[in-house]
Design goal:
The protein is built from four helices and eleven strands; from the N terminus they run H-H-E-E-H-E-E-H-E-E-E-E-E-E-E. It is α+β, with helices and mostly antiparallel strands. The strands form four sheets. It has a four-stranded antiparallel β-sheet with strand order 6-7-10-11, covered by helices on one side. It has a three-stranded antiparallel β-sheet with strand order 4-3-5. The protein has a two-stranded antiparallel sheet with strand order 1-2. Strand 10 and strand 11 form a beta hairpin. The chain is flat, with a radius of gyration of 34 Å. The model has no long low-confidence stretch (mean pLDDT 89).
Length: 257
């Protein structure tokens, strides 16, 4: 075997070795894709399912508020959204907008009966409970007051904002000191939002939710508009799938069963 033949054999071996290494790298990458891409698609499916059910819950709540001011449900979900949101806006501008009121929407004038506390219930229903920590800066004042019970002077520690009423008291003697203080206070509140027309549509199918009246109009049902499984290809090999997201029937959620 001459030297040229040996060189050719070694070259081919190196090429085979390089191809083998390249194949191993591609196989490893494909394995990673097969593990992580399906997980990402499942997460996407869950996100859309949760968003769709959140929309359905909002549509049911809208119907509940609509009935509280109109006395009945309305299968036109978009109209119900406009009415309940308009009443909330009116209460923002006028806190006395309660009881029998006239309202005009889309060139229609009709009456609504706004119950007391509508705005508070609206904001807590269409809102996310949140907490925050506020730093409160205050001044603690030490005052001397004459105590009739003890028949002698006594000291009290009060907040500066209450100082004036102590000074006006006939038993007030003097101020000993004023000390600036600060404290952290946990505040609970709702991050409120307004229901809008986007919530009337399924985020996957982009079709409106099905609103139907039951029990002679005394109950309402919200259904997902997805009738058949929606399949959308991802990277040719994989697929996003969305099945029917359930329903809410007179307040009972199918996914809570």
């Amino acid at each position: 075997m001459n030297d040229q033949t040996k060189i050719n054999i070694n070259t081919k071996r190196k090429q085979y070795s390089d191809l083998l290494e390249l194949g191993i790298v591609f196989a490893f990458l494909f394995l990673i894709i097969c593990i992580y891409v399906p997980r990402a698609i499942w997460d996407e499916e869950e996100i859309f399912e949760n968003q769709s059910r959140f929309h359905m819950e909002n549509m049911y709540d809208v119907q509940s508020f609509y009935k509280s001011i109109m006395g009945e449900f309305d299968p036109d979900g978009l109209w119900a959204i406009k009415v309940v949101s308009s009443v909330r806006d009116s209460l923002t501008g006028d806190s006395t907008y309660l009881g029998e009121q006239s309202i005009t929407l889309e060139n229609k004038t009709f009456s609504v009966n706004v119950p007391k506390g509508y705005d508070i219930e609206f904001d807590t229903t269409f809102g996310f409970p949140m907490t925050r920590r506020d730093t409160i800066v205050d001044t603690t004042v030490t005052v001397v007051m004459f105590s009739e019970e003890l028949t002698r002077n006594d000291t009290s520690y009060i907040q500066q904002k209450n100082l004036s009423k102590f000074i006006d008291d006939s038993n007030f003697v003097s101020i000993l000191e004023q000390v600036p203080t600060q404290r952290v206070e946990v505040v609970n509140y709702y991050d409120s939002y307004m229901p809008d027309s986007l919530m009337y549509f399924c985020p996957v199918s982009e079709k409106p939710y099905l609103v139907s009246l039951k029990d002679e109009g005394n109950a309402v049902r919200i259904d997902s508009p997805i009738e058949e499984t929606i399949v959308r290809r991802r990277y040719t090999v994989f697929a996003f799938k969305a099945n029917n997201h359930g329903f809410i029937n007179d307040g009972s959620k199918s996914w809570d069963r």
